[in-house]
Write a structure and sequence with these properties.
The protein is built from 12 helices and 6 strands. It is α+β, with helices and mostly antiparallel strands. The strands form 2 sheets. It has a 4-stranded antiparallel β-sheet with strand order 3-4-2-5. It has a two-stranded parallel ribbon with strand order 1-6. The radius of gyration is 31 Å and the shape is elongated.
């Protein structure tokens, strides 16, 4: 049955190669808008199922109290005691600015301890030392030798990437606005939600670099295999079509990309190129003994059962990931399955038409060269 299908589709590809590729192009153009709909989730927390007890508790805490902590660590450029009046006054000024942010519910620091006890920041270091020495909370915000301190911010951003990004920007903006009174303190912003965002930003940057790199490396290997830039490009059409279709479909289906499934692109390229190489290599083997049309028919007839079996078994393996309770891993399985299915369609439907047009063009070029 598959072999009969292969023969019928090759007849169409040989008779109407441009029409076949036009259909593929039309589908691709319809799917491209879906790329703009792709959602990216930076929070590692979203890897876990929402009905998990610890996640439910965290969400309840966020709803009632705002349970995300962000820390502004203040590290002196030189040896300085953070109990110096000028340091405390700077921390107090920064704390007051930060407290005005709508996503910051509460700010605590050694400055708030001193003001709670004294009403204002004293000009005397000894007075500050006395106030802090008698309060056990002091070492919640400073180390033992008073060479480093931090402000603790109770925030209300949850796992919202846009809010986290905005919060980080606002904090840095507040720090920059007090540069004139900064007594030589370096400020570092950290916290689990900030780390989540930073981690994902790095992964996005790596993805934007590694995906083209993977494409280029695959292209080099294919070029070396076929010893021709044009021939090497032919199986790459499978990779390009499968990548565009996969990205468009996950956008339309609302599948969320996260840190655990963003590596799917390289895997799809690596698996998809195999289909293209196999078909192109077998075609040129048979072309040495048969006509172009027959070589293409025999290639697809011989290969289609193995291609379909390989694709379906790979998809089955990836779909087994749907059994996990982790949403991101489920999405990973779906994305890879869509990618392999797209690669199969591209290899069986689009690639033979590309091969036919290219080989026809080369033969005509050779004949014209001989005539001239």
């Amino acid at each position: 049955m598959l072999e009969e299908f292969a023969e019928k589709i090759v007849k169409l590809q040989v008779k109407y190669p441009q029409a076949v590729l036009l259909v593929i192009l039309s589908i691709t153009l319809l799917l491209i808008p879906g790329i703009l709909k792709v959602k990216i989730e930076p929070s590692l927390e979203k890897v876990l199922p929402e009905d998990l007890a610890v996640i439910k508790t965290m969400n309840d805490m966020r709803t009632q109290f705002g349970a995300d902590m962000v820390y502004v660590v203040l590290e002196p450029d030189y040896a300085i005691d953070v109990r110096e009046p000028k340091v405390l006054k700077y921390i107090d000024a920064l704390q007051q600015k930060l407290a005005k942010d709508k996503n910051i519910l509460e700010v605590q620091s050694i400055a708030s301890i001193v003001k709670e006890k004294n009403g204002f920041i004293p000009d005397s270091k000894r007075k500050i030392e006395a106030l802090l020495n008698e309060d056990p909370r002091t070492f919640k915000f400073t180390n033992r030798d008073y060479s480093l301190t931090f402000l603790q911010l109770r925030t209300d951003t949850g796992t919202n990437a846009a809010l986290i990004k905005r919060l980080k920007f606002d904090i840095k903006d507040d720090i920059a606005s007090l540069e004139e009174i900064n007594p030589g303190l370096k400020a570092h912003v950290t916290g689990f939600n900030i780390i989540d965002k930073a981690t994902f930003d790095i992964m996005i940057f790596d993805f934007s670099f590694e995906t083209p790199l993977a494409f280029a490396l695959i292209g080099i290997v294919v070029f070396i295999t076929f010893r021709s830039l044009a021939k090497g490009f032919i199986p790459m059409t499978v990779v390009m079509i499968s990548m565009l279709w996969t990205t468009g479909l996950i956008g339309y289906f609302g599948i969320v990309l996260s840190s655990t499934n963003i590596v799917a692109a390289a895997m799809i390229m690596g698996l998809g190129i195999d289909f293209g190489i196999h078909i192109l290599y077998r075609f040129y083997e048979l072309k040495a003994k048969h006509s172009r049309e027959n070589a293409l028919t025999f290639t697809l007839r011989e290969s289609i059962r193995a291609l379909v079996a390989a694709a379906l078994t790979t998809i089955a393996a990836f779909l087994s990931l749907l059994s996990t309770p982790l949403p991101a891993i489920k999405n990973f399985g779906i994305i890879l399955s869509i990618g392999i299915a797209s690669a199969l369609v591209a290899a069986v439907v689009a690639l033979p038409a590309v091969i036919f047009l290219y080989d026809t063009y080369i033969d005509k070029k050779i004949k014209l060269a001989k005539i001239s």
